[in-house]
Amino acid sequence: MTDFMMDFADDRVLPFTVEALDIRGRAVRLGPMIDEILGRHAYPDAVSELLGQATTLAVLLGSALKFEGRFQIQARADGPVDMLVVDFEAPDRVRGYARFDATRLVDGMTPAEVLGRGQLGLTIDQGNDISRYQGIVALDGQGLEEAAQQYFRQSEQIPTRVRLAVGRVVQTDGAGDLRPVWRAGGVMAQFMPTSPERQRSADLHPGDAPEGATILQFGDDDAWTEARLLIETVEDHELIDPTLTSEALLYRLFHESGVVVFDAEAITAQCRCSRDRIVSMIKGFPPNERREMVADDGMIGVTCEFCSTRYEVLPDDVDLQDEDGR
């Protein structure tokens, strides 16, 4: 555990608990890391904001994994952004990209409008021949915050409140010049009661109950109501303010009930792509398709969708001939 010292470090996630309210959660603030990811892609602002939200959500959820593995957020939708993918590789690496139709973007679109309707998949992959777990949430224009809450409410039956924010702020760079940089932040609180009284929280309607049957209804626990309302007071500017630490934000919210924070975990932007992986991928295509990949300059060019790194591969490195030598 740590105390509330003034540490303005970015690119980290901070676990916390509020025992009096049976709350566990995580807070994240992203600075240079999210600026690197979004800056490399150079997407339109509305697409960058959506990818920033998805990256922040992936960090909040993926950093809770207690094993070496991968957590992935993938959305397929009918909005200008028809595909959105963020990979979080435990314990600390993240990457992401979006596919979009620029002709459909309209000034002033919100991230929820940019995404539209479709499906959001949350996948946990432990590797080592262990079956993957995937949860699916319908996207009905509600955005990533509500979709995440809906997932926990329906699939995990854990009351959850998520706040996400992405934006640009003007900061001094390494050369001492002022420039706008991307920042992102988020906070997630979950109601994890241990007493039987508090476990009797509001539940989903059973749906298939016989007509006339009495359905017991329990309202939200007062502790969860208090915590949820406090999280809902968080403003976007608080989540991306470079001078407001996660510790200070949590103290603002929960000082009356007593909040305990644990050691922060660093997060980095790191892609899994490499020249060797690219060459291996190209070799997986039939020789005739490899030959078609050769550009006018005599090279095979491949750009990684996740980090926008450009690779130039010599045809001789991928063997363009068929088995009979043609």
Overall description:
The protein has two domains: 12-203 and 219-269, Hsp33 domain; 275-317, no CATH class. It has helices spanning 32-41, 45-62, 111-115, 143-156, 196-199, 222-232, 236-240, 246-254, 275-283, 287-293, and strands spanning 12-18, 23-30, 70-77, 81-89, 93-100, 117-125, 133-140, 160-172, 178-191, 260-261, 265-266, 268-269, 300-303, 310-313. The strands form three sheets. Strands 1, 2, 8, 9, 10 and 11 form a six-stranded antiparallel sheet that branches. A six-stranded mixed sheet has the order 7-6-3-4-5-12, covered by helices on one side. A two-stranded antiparallel sheet has the order 13-14. Mean pLDDT is 88; it is low at 1-7 and 214-218. It is of the alpha+beta class.
